[in-house]
Amino acid sequence: MKLRTLAALVAVPTLLTGGTALALRKTDAPERQLEAAEGARPRAYRAVDWDVLPTPAPRAAWQKFAADHPTWHSLWDRQTGVPLRLWGEGVAAPGAMRDAAIAEQAARRMLADHLDLLAPGASIGDFELVSNVVHGRGTMRTVGFTQHHQGLRVVGGQVSFLFKHDRLFVIGSEALPNVKVPPTTFAAAAPSLLKSQALGWIQSLRAAGATVGEIGETAILPVIRDGKAGGIEYRVVRAVDVATTGPVGRWDVYVDASTGQPVARRQKLHFGRGTLTYHVPERGPTRARKDFPAIFTQVQVDGASAASNDAGLLEWAGTAAAQVTTTIVGPFAKVNNAAGNLASAVLTLAPDNSVVWDLSSDEKGDAQLSAFIHANIVKQYAKKNLNPDLAFLDQQLNVFVNEADHCNAFSNGGDQIHFFSAGAVDVGGGQQLQCENTGRIADVVYHEFGHSLHGTSIIPGAGFFDGAMSEGVSDYLAATITGDHGMGRGFFPGDDSALRDLDPADGEKRWPDDLVGEVHADGEIIGGTLWDLRKAMIAEFGEADGVRRADDIYYAILQTAADIPSTYVSALAQDDDDGDITNGTPNRCLILKTFDAHGLGLVDNQSVTLQIGQPQVDGFHVSLAAKDVSPCEGTAGLGPMTLKWKLRGAATTTDIPMEGASDVYSATIPTQPDGSVVQYQIVIDLTDGRSLTFPDNRADNMYEMYVGPVETIYCASFDQQPADWTTGASSGSNEWQWGAPTGAGGDPKEAFSGSSVFGIDLGTGSNNGTYEPDTTQFATMPEIDVSAYKTVHLQYRRWLGVEDGFFDHAVIDADGTTVWQNRASANEFVASVHHTDREWRFQDVDLSPQAADGKVKVTFKLTSDQGLELSGWNLDDVCLVGIGDADPPEGGCCSTSGKGAGSGVVLSIFTGLALWIRRRRRAA
User: Fold this and answer.
1) How far apart are CA 23 and CA 470, in angstroms?
2) What residues are paired with 625 via a beta bridge?
3) Contacts of 75 (CB under 8 A, 6+ apart)
4) What is the pLDDT of residue 22?
5) Which of 328, 774, 798, 887 has the most CB atoms within 10 Å of its CB?
6) Which among 553, 566, 542, 402 is positioned nearest to 476, based on CA atoms?
7) Among positive and negative, which fits the CA dihedral 411, 412, 415, 418?
């Protein structure tokens, strides 16, 4: 099954009392966090813009806020037009840190003054105070409100205000704009109908039996749609808890409150892989074992109830050896054994000695002991190092082990963590162990507890339970406890490699380049960021203080971040010391360097580390303006630059060092004969070991230029609407449009030449700029007489965004023959090399075989599957050119040597806006 793709997954909190369950590996049937019963699919991620006002944003409201707070920064939800985070120099609120009432009054005043910006279409009475708490070791206060409409809670709608040093300096909004539902004086459906409808939908999706649980409150569910349908649909719903077994699954099924019709579902269990093993494994069953103190354990000593302390010590009357009846129950953790009775033993404990309970030869017994020990370890770590005042840490955690499934574990987001038995497969007539019992793997226990810690630490109205973020921060919790960036070692028998590595040898993961739409994989971006931050803090402050500082930032992210893009602001807020982020924070440069290396640092004129200008080509001479503009010492600087080139079709490239003078670097490609197509790229090595590659498109990372004169046969510049082109769709919608591009969905913000382009969904009106799922659509130029030429090429400008060709296909077809298509990976597990142009690209395609009959017709096609929709085709200056002597037809419109130039030797040039660079690490 395809791994769903993209970024910050939209988390929708449950309407029931149970929490969201998250785990260590993908489920057997991966789903978006919200799946709709009908209509266009809900969006899979939150696309964001830094300091760039998106089209749906209330411009007048922003201008008012910006006038009052001119130095503040903004992070926008591109589709809703609501500012996800605003932060800056801070607004004085004397007494806000010591007095909750003063803080609430300041927050309400800010909300009222800028309601049209923070929650367009809402009224001030729609917001209910749900939190007013001091956190961050007493240095910060958050005031959070949840959103309502007509007295009903809007699922996921919230606004928060963060104070420090008596200054309001961060505002968060996940409010939904312009909420509209029919009057709520409807006839409510009977509970039995709601349950039967919810149950029936899940049963239709899963062959296994399903059971139905409780019904939640009546609420308003926003369904933010992907694709051209776009927009937000608001439905009055109730959530019904439905669970399945074989495979294990559990959903909040949102059904229409008046009809019972299913509207959407949210999977609450996200499975993972890992190995989890009194004498128990330190990490996993095939690794070293250790005698761990059985801390906080309720036992019997000589028949009387007793409890061990935080060092595992027991006391009893007398000086003789005691008979200790063991258990795996304590005030902070209680084991539940799905395979039968709880393990127990009677051991003799001599005074001033120790005794060991060892079930290492018994998988299911060992899982009980290991899960109990490591659950207590992680709870005490959180209580001592993260939040000693969190009530959840003083409550009993239910630890379920040996459950009748394999290679998985999960958390319910609250007081339960679950672990599965070892799994075996038939090999050659015998059984071969496939994965270890996850209850025997310390890392998995820590990871699953991390989800529960996340779910119970979120400050209502401020943070949010985003699945990808939760996976990454839970990986970090395991890593910071073990001190090992390799999480889940030993999950597979005989294999000590990490299940996920937060410090991979082959390069750091970056946002959004490395998103694949699967929460565990996407979570590695923030997990790796936090691990690198931990390393940097240790290098700066030493082991103990460095870990403490990194853990404090990690926990602040749990409390106040809404998703992975918003973690940077939470990190700066935690590090700030005066309620004014704009004047820097004590470790701003360290944080900037770390987060920027993973694509998460703020990139603007104040904090960008490198400025890369617009590359230029003059004949065979290539130049690039570049300089360091970092405000921080130690951030990545410019190293050697290399121009790599080859003739199209050659197997290897030739390297030419680029020489620098006055911040301009250049090199010259050797002169090539007419008719050649030269391919080239620029690689910039950075001083931190990373490298930048231009063009920044993994699927097509070489520019092209054609050498020699050409004659125009036909050209469409799209300055006028192309009446001679035909468009259509063999499935789905025809989204081809002519007009000015808007920059939506990854599209260009301006045409290559003139003012108009021809492309798929240009983002006008309510459109989002991306193509629809499940569509095959095309645009075909008229059939052109090319009989005067033996050699005919298509030469044009493109700005294309399309998912990896294993899933979605962008094709150029000439007379029924495919002459070009986007890169396709070998299989679905590595199919994340998406074609993402970030500038107008020149492309040359030889059509001579198709033109041999004297005519040719070219078609641009796009075929999509059910998930991950990008910007699609954007075309400009599409030309058929003849090469060689001939009498060309009259007319023509297109330059063949670059923007605004006449006929010349070199056809292609570098184009595109100046780039403020935040790139992935690439091999040079």
Assistant:
1) 9
2) 664
3) 48, 49, 50, 83, 84, 85, 86, 565, 566, 569
4) 52
5) 328
6) 553
7) negative
Please say whether the beta carbons of 252 and 240 come within 8 A: yes
- CATH number for region 610-706: 2.60.40.10
Q: CA-to-CA distance for 673 and 670, rounded, in angstroms?
A: 10
Q: Taking the CB of residue 790, how many other CB atoms lie within 10 A of it?
A: 14
Q: What pTM does this model have?
A: 0.66
What is d(CA 376, CA 331) in angstroms, rounded to the nearest whole number?
A: 10
DSSP 583-633: G--TTHHHHHHHHHHTT-S--STTT-SEEE---EEETTEEEEEEEE--SST
Asked if 329 and 297 touch (Cβ cutoff 8 Å), the reply is yes
CATH code for the structural domain at 28-43+183-267:
3.10.450
Burial (CB count <10 Å: 0-12, 13-18, 19+), residue 890: exposed
DSSP 816: T
The total of other beta-carbon atoms located within 10 Å of residue 667's CB is 21
Which has the higher per-residue pLDDT, 343 or 427?
Answer: 343
In sequence order, what DSSP letters do the residues of 29-58 get, joined into one string? S---SSEESSSSPBPSS--EEES---TTS-
CB neighbourhood size of 234 (10 A): 18
pLDDT digit string, tens, across residues 746-791: 899 999 999 999 999 998 887 888 999 999 999 999 999 999 999 9
* Paired strand residues for 36: 264
The CA distance from 240 to 228, in Å, is: 30
* Selected residue with higher pLDDT from 395 and 829: 395
SS3 state of residue 575: helix
Q: Flag whether pLDDT at 892 surpasses 80.
A: no
Q: Read off the amino acid at residue 185.
A: T
- For 653, the 3-state DSSP assignment is coil
Instruction: Give every CB contact of residue 883 below 8 A, 6+ residues apart in sequence.
Output: 675, 708, 710, 711, 789, 791, 792, 793
Sign of CA dihedral 476, 480, 481, 485: positive
Q: Is 899 left (phi over 0), alpha (psi -120 to 50) or beta?
A: beta
Maximal CA-CA distance, the chain: 114
Question: Phi-psi category of 542—alpha, beta or left, where left has phi over 0 and alpha has psi -120 to 50?
Answer: left
Q: Which of 313-317, 426-430, 581-585 has the lowest mean pLDDT?
A: 426-430
For domain 711-904, give the fold: Jelly Rolls (2.60.120)
Please classify residue 48 by burial: count the beta carbons closer than 10 Å to its beta carbon, then call 0-12 exposed, 13-18 middle and 19+ buried: buried
Average pLDDT over residues 508-525: 84
Query: Who has greater pLDDT, 121 or 909?
Result: 121
Angstrom CA distances, 549 to 474, 531, 552, 574, 590, stand at 17, 12, 5, 9, 12
Which SS3 state, helix, strand or coil, does residue 760 take?
strand
The secondary structure of 353-384, three-state, reads CCCCCCCCCCHHHHHHHHHHHHHHHHHHHHHH
DSSP 509-534: --TTTT--S-HHHHHHHHHHHHHHHH
Distance, in Å, from the CA atom of 516 to the CA atom of 5, rounded to the nearest integer, reads 4
Q: pLDDT tens digit string along 781-826?
A: 999 999 999 999 999 999 999 999 999 999 999 999 999 999 999 8
Compute the distance between CA of residue 566 and CA of residue 84 in angstroms, rounded to an integer: 8
Q: What are phi and psi of 154, to 5 degrees?
A: -90, 115
Nearest to 375 by CA among 364, 367, 386: 367
DSSP 49-82: EES---TTS-HHHHHHHHHH-TT-EEEEETTT--
Please state, in angstroms and rounded to a whole number, the distance separating the CA atoms of residues 696 and 615: 13
- What three-state secondary structure class fits 195? helix
Q: How many residues does the chain have?
A: 924
CA distance 636 to 686: 6
